[in-house]
Amino acid sequence: MTSIPVLLVDDSEPDRLFASIVLGRSGRPLEVQEFESGADALAELATAPRPPTLILLDINMPGMDGFAFLQAFEQLPEERRRGTSVVMLSSSPLDSDRERALAHACVRDYMVKPLSVQQARSLAERFGGPA
After folding, report:
1. Above 70 in pLDDT, residue 18?
2. pTM for the full model?
3. N or C: more exposed end of the chain, with fewer CB within 10 A?
4. Who contacts 36 (Cβ-Cβ below 8 Å, separation ≥6)?
5. Residue 129 falls within a domain, yes or no?
């Protein structure tokens, strides 16, 4: 079974660690790359040999927040974005943040942290195909 490439973008090291552990329990082979900033993740996307299948993106980050990342991501060439879905994984339960995120065509879902094992399994199934 081919691993599913995932970019996890969150400035909080504990949140990245927790999400990585939960993703590891999804029952699917996920190749998770962690990034502390949106700018670092965008630099990776600009040079990666293939786009990730899934980006898990925090909203509230210093420097470049999740919304600025989405705007920059949408400006990347199509071949750098093709086949990539974004799921917002945020501590914000606000409907206004959810609506703002889902207004972007690349955003497929909005989840409030912490990520559960069931949510990780669902993401792996939705974006990685059947087991």
Report:
1. yes
2. 0.94
3. N
4. 10, 11, 13, 16
5. no
